[in-house]
Specification:
Length: 249
Amino acid sequence: MRRFWINWGRWKLKVNLDPIQAAKQKAALEAVKHVKDGFVVGLGSGSTAAFAIEALGERIKKENLHIMGIPTSYQAFLLAIECGIPITTLDEHPEINVTIDGADQVTPELNLIKGMGAAMAREKIVAAASKLNVIIADQNKKVKLLGENNQVVPIEVLPFAISLAKRKLVAIGGKPTVREGKGKLGPVITDNGNAILDTYFGEIKDPAELAVKVKMIPGVVETGFFIGLTDIVYFGLSSGVEKIEELRK
Ligand code: 5RP
């Protein structure tokens, strides 16, 4: 699929996108409107967040916008550099104005599963440091209950703890599988040097309770459960963008 840019108002749009990619881009273009001059912005990971990083790069060029980005992964870091977004760190800017990130599943309560890109540990740290968290997704990510449609929960574990964590996850009703790399033999190694246990729990009625149980397992660094961290979700649709808002207190 060839991609190229056209001008659409003050935005450049990628055209010739398939419908899902186009929906992701629409959501991203809405989300970047929350970014104002002088903001520190959390840069999410994944294919949807990439559209937001590209759109922010465009705004920097077109509007002379002054922002700094805190990337949540090497993917986001490299793309931000390519798009001309100045990079900073949480140590220099402990409070982030707004973070824009993708998700793998989103419930009506705005609870999420994240981490199919294995970046959820840094994503959660950046989200927790943000005054406003905006999630962008195509509408296929919308679910009633987390874990629907055979969705697994990504769990980052220290390599030393893989066998123990697997045993403990089975004990609380999970079916864990070590995520294998593509273009590399053996397990995926995260940006933090850890492994991912993709764990199937079925449909999850109480994700907050399960998230605590999983986090208590020795060696678990982070889980893909994002509970009560999201303020706004933009779902890209074929006909436009749906906004759901549940501002945190
Ligand atoms: C990475 C993530 C991503 O945001 C999530 O997997 C969604 O990715 P995509 O936008 O490519 O569907 O949580 O850890």
